Amino acid sequence: MTMIFGIPIQALLGQLLVGLINGSFYAMLSLGLAVIFGLLRIINFAHGALYMLGAFIGYLLLVHLGIGYWPALVIVPLAVGLFGMAVERVALSRLYRLDPLYGLLFTFGLALVIEGVFRYYYGVSGNPYAVPTLLAGGTNLGFMFLPNYRGWVVVASLIVCVGTWLLIEKTRLGSYLRAATENPELVQAFGVNVPLLLTLTYGLGAALAGLAGILAAPVYQVSPLMGSDLIIVVFAVVVVGGMGSILGAIVTGYMLGLAEGLTKVFYPEASNLVVFVIMAIVLLLRPAGLFGRDA
Amino acid sequence: MSEPLLAVRDLHAWYGEGHALHGVDLDVFRGETVTLLGRNGVGKTTTLRAIMGLIRKRKGSVTFNGKDLIRLPLHRVAHQGIGFVPEERGIFATLTVDENLILPPVVAKGGMSVEEIFELFPNLKERRNSQGTKLSGGEQQMLAIARILRTGVEMLLLDEPTEGLAPVIVQRIGELLATLKKRGMTILLVEQNFRFAARIADRFYLMDHGKVVEGFPVGQLSAHTDKLHEVLGV
């Protein structure tokens, strides 16, 4: 058996794959958080709940309406995105002129409400969501066995992350978004409908969380707590990447997922801690984050 | 006399509780260049910002082309045909020169094309892929004006375009404004540099304590020298 630093290569690659999958979800969620924070200056504590909502909508579509995974992959982000836009219009838009703390408190409360509703109706135990038939089984890569669905999650998240990055960096809408992040009043004085841009941005962030949720449904159990379990790590990813940095959120998401996976191989006891240790070190050495611009 | 393109009546504005404008009255007619003069802190910049709607706490009337701007949301004001070049220039660091240039939406036909703008500002063409804030102060000012020229607006509100710039750049901006004037652009200018303003303005308004205290055409400049000395402290 081939060994690396006394560890069988299969075990190492297996954990790296787990790390890469977790990293895929970290990247998609922190990307949404970064987009929202960049423009709205709101630390969206409801992000984990929106991710959970995505998984649950997918689950309910399947159980009650018989709508399977592939249509759900389109319906869920649209539904969560529209829900996010409604939340922004009805509530968040009234808080922009107040202290940012109000936005944080509101989204924290919203997360508790969404989570509470699903806990009331579905309890805390998870509900299984079957892997779609097309992606069932696995592929023998020679050095390891790769479950097809997990491979798909990594590819899909890469497509989503690169697509979102291109949207923000290379399109006219993206240039409005970047400019409004710097100076929203001036962009509005140029004739750009910034309030609409804010609504769309929160909707985009929510849709990304919803998409991550439906992608996660077959990997993890669909449970009301799945968002709150993940969100603290995702916040750490955003801090390490640099608050509001799109590229930082993506790269750091994958990087910290892999770091977690590697720690599981070499020192499993520290695997839940490693992300926060890295966050503390980065905050000490580079408070603006790895990709953040110094204030 | 014809109707003014921009008419401001009894305009009051507040920064929080601070009452900054105390009833500004002014008119700008189509094709005119009008300069607001006054010492620091008398409300010249506030007047431009209140006209644009960048200060929401305001009272009075601002009509442009006969339309009341006070009732419009901020993002609808530019679409009436009025463009703003702020004192701090407002060049975006995360955007390239090209992206900065095409950022403001086109609001009417008749604006300059990017090619025409690059003919007028060859420096910007050379640096079109640079980050906007890497340009020199003079180039940033040119870019700030150029991006509004693309939009097809009828009127420019220009806040201190020569501030902090070398004399050779100030001269270049003077030439640019003269060219725009020839093309029929209406300009409301805030300027501390009196000599610069005197060369391009058709009329002047003198501001003190948050309101207009006097207005006169360029031909009566010498008759108002004493008053200018008194109000401007020059």
Automatic annotation (TrEMBL), chain A:
Keywords: Amino-acid transport, Cell membrane, Membrane, Transmembrane, Transmembrane helix, Transport. It is a multi-pass membrane protein. CDD domains: TM_PBP1_LivH_like. The chain crosses the membrane at residues 12-37, 49-67, 73-92, 101-122, 149-168, 189-218, 230-258, 270-289. It is found in: Cell membrane. Belongs to the binding-protein-dependent transport system permease family. LivHM subfamily. This is Branched-chain amino acid ABC transporter permease. It comes from Mesorhizobium dulcispinae. The lineage of its organism: Bacteria, Pseudomonadati, Pseudomonadota, Alphaproteobacteria, Hyphomicrobiales.
Automatic annotation (TrEMBL), chain B:
Keywords: Amino-acid transport, ATP-binding, Nucleotide-binding, Transport. It comes from the Bacteria. Residues 6-234 form the ABC transporter domain. InterPro entries: AAA+_ATPase (IPR003593), ABC_transporter-like_ATP-bd (IPR003439), ABC_transporter-like_CS (IPR017871), BCAA_Transport_ATP-bd_LivF (IPR052156), P-loop_NTPase (IPR027417). GO terms for molecular function: ATP binding. CDD domains: ABC_TM1139_LivF_branched. SMART domains: AAA (SM00382). Belongs to the ABC transporter superfamily. This is ABC transporter ATP-binding protein. It comes from Mesorhizobium dulcispinae.
